[in-house]
């Protein structure tokens, strides 16, 4: 039986069958190169389409370069465009091939068709090959004098491209002077706009080294040039109008009459259909009237209608951009927009980012006259199916209440939120009620009556649970079940994963103990014992601090932990007035959309020196030599693989500043409660008269809190038994592979002693110290105060590796340690050894 015939499929132009097809294309192009037969241009088009198709999908068709250039000898513009596209693509990666294009491009620059002249000139300037700049000067000079405006437009941009390839060639050819002449005398506004753009870029770059360029740049802001551009502004395209208006915003008029003349001239630009033109015009109006208070306020009134129209008539993206600018104006003059609050109501079909910004606007424009309507609208959003928007709406209600507008009605609304059977609504309302009680203590009775009915088991979000615990401690005298609720929370201490909640729980139990001691005694003892044994450094430190201050004097402890409080008058703003003014100065830029000054997202030093990923990626690591003291590869601070990620920075910041600033002088969080007796011994040495009293107070507190009386202090932990290889060697590639493959065995935080911080004058000192403990550094990086190290160690007599990432903050004295190991069971022993070595740094 004959085998079935295979189906034959003709290869697609975008799927070549192999090198033979490229060879066929080359042969066909060569046959058509010199042909003048009828219909030859159509055949060339088909072949050119195949070549461009192959090039687009990454197939190397550079071998057809000569044939493509020969076939470009035609008047067909479509063929010219495809040929120029091909030439530009391969000239960048192969400068030698670019030499073959010079003759035919220069010939096309003299073509009778202005479209071909312009296209050829653009392609010639787009080659961007440094050794071909001498061939650009002549065609550019001719193009700037061409009778056709399109050619002149292309030539102006070509001058700018030439400047970036070879600035000296551009300046020596006196092209900036020619551009200035064209800007002031050319009849085509697009040529004028291109000249203005090119001159601004060239003279700004040259101003740092040339006084003449500095004077020329300042001359652009002279009255004749500004008025010349303003008188022709209606002829410009939208892009060009924005360019001119940006220049006018920097102009300093000589008197008020000139200011009004400019504003009258630009009045109709506020009705322009393009939002960019409107925003650029608004920036001019505001910059001109900054020193004229009354007129500046009238400008706000005038620009309000155009902005609100743009918000409601454009796409969601345009609405968000305009709303961002409107938001910064509302923050500066909320009273002007207070009557237009309904424009900021959320529509059902708007994306969430627009709704979120509108909620901020509603919060900003709220005052005595419109608070009721705004709060009523916001309460409707609390039942929104979009949970993040529902949360934001509840927060907005709370912000309005903190502004002292119609507090009575708002508090009633928030208490109604607490009774809703939605966890996220209850959570957000609890956080807001806490802030309200801090500002309006007189509402405590009404709020506590409702909060007392909320079960702590139904509150799972850390911030909400922390707020509930704060109220239980602060108002425990008014809440009958407060001690018992706190006691149940302490009993479930190990199940609470949030350090913030555990910190609040410690403080709340202390406050409750001072108000209702018999009912809270056992809960306080259990809380202090659990807190001192807690792995979270801040929780451990705060518990130890509370224990010691109770040892010292209970009345002093009460004055420290639960002093008389004054109502909070103003909550801190998230942005300083200086930042807001800086954003306002950068109106009509991305700074307004990002809500931060441009230097914060453009300058590297303000983005932060640490922008690494958690993975090593393409980390370049050097090999350590066994006989060298330290030969760790220093990696630049901007290496993306050795810089802290944003999340790591936030974790470090939160752990460094979360809770009490008190730091316990112990190496680890597992310190025994009874180790605090050491402090009493030190007290006895320094002050014998008070030693007996302190010892009695300690025993009394231990007995009071039910911690028991130890027969003797706990013996110090035995020295670690793990032995390391002092001459360990690990290949960089092996380190990198293991780091990617191994899971994280331990992640801990370690406090570095003040002596260690003082000794940390240079990273090399730490590397030598760790190597003396058989722990070797394979890579390091960072800048003060943050440094990042990668260490490795090997178990003696076994080929088991331990990999360590250690991030040290010298300002907070904390080290974030992440350990990976071939043998997970020995990770804890190695961690103890590593931290022991780190704690000895500076003390030896």
UniProtKB/TrEMBL annotation:
It is found in: Endomembrane system. Subunit of clathrin-associated adaptor protein complex that plays a role in protein sorting in the late-Golgi/trans-Golgi network (TGN) and/or endosomes. The AP complexes mediate both the recruitment of clathrin to membranes and the recognition of sorting signals within the cytosolic tails of transmembrane cargo molecules. One of its GO terms (cellular component) is endomembrane system. Residues 722-839 form the Beta-adaptin appendage C-terminal subdomain domain. Residues 1-17 have a biased composition (Low complexity). This is Beta-adaptin-like protein. Belongs to the adaptor complexes large subunit family. Adaptor protein complexes are heterotetramers composed of two large adaptins (beta-type subunit and alpha-type or delta-type or epsilon-type or gamma-type subunit), a medium adaptin (mu-type subunit) and a small adaptin (sigma-type subunit). GO terms for biological process: intracellular protein transport; vesicle-mediated transport. It comes from the Eukaryota. Residues 1-23, 641-664 are annotated as: Disordered. It comes from Corchorus capsularis. Transmembrane segments: none annotated. GO terms for molecular function: clathrin binding. Keywords: Membrane, Protein transport, Transport. The keyword Membrane applies. The lineage of its organism: Eukaryota, Viridiplantae, Streptophyta, Embryophyta, Tracheophyta. InterPro entries: AP_beta, AP_complex_bsu_1_2_4, ARM-like, ARM-type_fold, B-adaptin_app_sub_C, Clathrin/coatomer_adapt-like_N, Coatomer/calthrin_app_sub_C, TBP_dom_sf. Residues 641-654 have a biased composition (Basic and acidic residues).
């Amino acid at each position: 039986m004959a085998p079935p015939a295979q189906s034959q499929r003709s290869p697609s132009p975008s799927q070549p069958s192999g090198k033979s097809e490229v060879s066929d294309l080359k042969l066909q192009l060569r046959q058509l190169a010199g042909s003048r037969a009828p219909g030859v241009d159509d055949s060339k088009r088909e072949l050119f389409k195949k070549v461009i198709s192959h090039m687009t999908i990454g197939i190397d068709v550079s071998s057809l370069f000569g044939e493509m250039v020969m076939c470009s000898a035609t008047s067909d513009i479509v063929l010219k465009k495809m040929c120029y596209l091909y030439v530009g693509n391969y000239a960048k990666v192969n400068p030698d091939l670019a030499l073959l294009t010079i003759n035919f491009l220069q010939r096309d620059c003299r073509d009778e068709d202005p479209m071909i002249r312009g296209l050829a000139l653009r392609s010639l300037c787009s080659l961007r090959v440094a050794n071909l700049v001498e061939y650009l000067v002549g065609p550019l000079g001719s193009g700037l004098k061409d009778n056709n405006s399109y050619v002149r437009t292309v030539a102006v941009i070509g001058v700018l491209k030439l400047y970036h390839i070879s600035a000296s060639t551009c300046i020596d050819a006196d092209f900036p002077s020619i551009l200035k002449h064209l800007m002031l005398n050319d009849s085509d506004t697009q040529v004028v706009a291109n000249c203005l753009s090119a001159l601004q870029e060239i003279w700004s770059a040259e101003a740092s080294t040339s006084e003449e360029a500095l004077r020329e740049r300042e001359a652009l802001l002279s009255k004749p040039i500004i008025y010349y551009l303003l008188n022709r502004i209606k002829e410009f395209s939208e892009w060009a109008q924005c360019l001119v208006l940006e220049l006018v915003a920097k102009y300093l008029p000589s008197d008020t009459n000139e200011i009004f003349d400019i504003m009258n001239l630009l009045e109709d630009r506020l009705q322009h259909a393009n939002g960019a033109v409107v925003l650029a015009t608004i920036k001019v109006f505001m910059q001109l009237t900054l020193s004229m208070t009354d007129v500046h306020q009238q400008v706000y009134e005038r620009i309000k209608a155009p902005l609100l129209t743009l918000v409601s008539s454009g796409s969601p993206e345009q609405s968000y951009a305009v709303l961002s600018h409107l938001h910064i104006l509302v923050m500066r003059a909320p009273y002007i927009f207070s009557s237009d609050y309904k424009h900021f109501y959320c529509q059902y079909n708007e994306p969430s980012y627009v709704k979120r910004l509108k909620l901020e606007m509603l919060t900003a424009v709220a005052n005595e006259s419109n608070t009721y309507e705004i709060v009523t609208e916001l309460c409707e959003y609390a039942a929104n199916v979009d949970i993040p928007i529902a949360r934001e709406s509840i927060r907005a209600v709370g912000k309005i209440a903190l502004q002292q507008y119609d507090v009575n009605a708002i508090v009633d609304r928030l208490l109604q939120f607490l009774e809703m059977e939605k966890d996220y609504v209850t959570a957000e309302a609890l956080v807001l009620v806490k802030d309200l009680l801090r500002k309006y203590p007189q509402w405590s009775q009404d709020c506590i009556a409702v909060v007392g009915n909320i079960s702590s088991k139904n509150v799972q979000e850390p911030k909400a649970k922390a707020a509930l615990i704060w109220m239980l401690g602060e108002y425990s005298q008014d809440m009958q079940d407060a001690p018992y609720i706190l006691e149940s929370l302490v009993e479930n201490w190990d199940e609470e994963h949030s350090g913030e909640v555990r910190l609040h729980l410690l403080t709340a139990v202390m406050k409750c103990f001072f108000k209702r001691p018999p009912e809270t005694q056992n809960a306080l003892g259990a809380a202090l014992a659990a807190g001192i044994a807690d792995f979270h450094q801040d929780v451990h430190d705060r518990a130890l601090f509370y224990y010691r201050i109770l040892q010292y004097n209970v009345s002093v402890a009460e004055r420290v932990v639960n002093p008389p409080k004054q109502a909070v008058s103003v909550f801190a703003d998230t942005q300083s007035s200086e930042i807001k003014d800086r954003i306002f100065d950068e109106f009509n830029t991305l700074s307004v959309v990002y809500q931060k000054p441009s230097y914060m997202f453009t300058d590297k030093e303000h983005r932060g020196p640490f922008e690494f990923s958690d993975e090593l990626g393409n980390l370049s690591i050097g090999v350590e030599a066994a006989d060298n003291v330290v030969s760790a590869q220093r990696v630049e601070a901007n290496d993306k693989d050795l810089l802290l990620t944003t999340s790591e920075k936030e974790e470090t910041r939160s752990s460094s500043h979360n809770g009490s600033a008190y730091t316990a002088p112990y190496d680890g969080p597992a310190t025994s409660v009874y180790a605090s007796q050491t402090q009493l011994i030190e007290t006895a040495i320094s002050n014998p008269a008070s030693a007996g009293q302190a010892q009695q107070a300690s025993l009394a507190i231990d007995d009071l809190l039910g911690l028991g009386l130890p027969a003797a202090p706990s013996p110090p932990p035995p020295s670690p038994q793990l032995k390391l290889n002092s001459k360990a060697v690990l290949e960089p590639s092996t380190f990198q592979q293991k780091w990617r493959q191994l899971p994280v065995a331990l992640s801990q935080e370690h406090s570095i002693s003040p002596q260690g911080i003082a000794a940390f004058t240079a990273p090399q000192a730490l590397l030598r110290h760790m190597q003396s403990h058989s722990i070797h550094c394979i890579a390091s990086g960072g800048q003060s105060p943050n440094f990042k190290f990668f260490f490795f160690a090997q178990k003696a007599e076994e080929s088991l590796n331990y990999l360590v990432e250690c991030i040290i903050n010298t300002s907070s004295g904390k080290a974030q340690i992440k350990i990976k190991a071939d043998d997970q069971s020995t990770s804890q022993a190695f961690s103890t050894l590593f931290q022991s070595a780190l704690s000895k740094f500076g003390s030896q």
